[in-house]
Amino acid sequence: EVQLVESGGASVQPGGSLRLSCVATGYGVGSGCMGWFRQAPGKEREGVAGIVSDGRTSYANVVKGRFTISKDNAENTLYPQMNNLKPDDTAVYYCAADRAWACSGPPQTYNFRGQGTQVTVS
Prior knowledge:
The model has no long low-confidence stretch (mean pLDDT 94). The protein has strands at residues 3-7, 11-12, 18-19, 21-25, 33-39, 46-52, 57-59, 67-72, 77-82, 91-98, 112-113, 117-121. By secondary structure, the protein is mostly beta strands.
């Protein structure tokens, strides 16, 4: 069974930084694809960043230059480093993953996801 557990959400002031973590069990972060998506109250899910098995990354335009996604294969953990946070970044952030053959869409379409962690910027 695949489980993804996020942590690191917090309340920060604009311009601040946070690093979220997503620990995976039953799934190797070195395989397939993983990513983060977020959902703010009253808004649709929005893909934030993704990373595939060969390390290639992708970012939503609104976070480019501010967020960096990375993974630690030894710790089986996925991270986003989020800098220069803005009030519009306030949302519940979810970690997501899928098998290599299903990685054709953004992170919010992946089959495995965690319970989310709240990030508030104000």
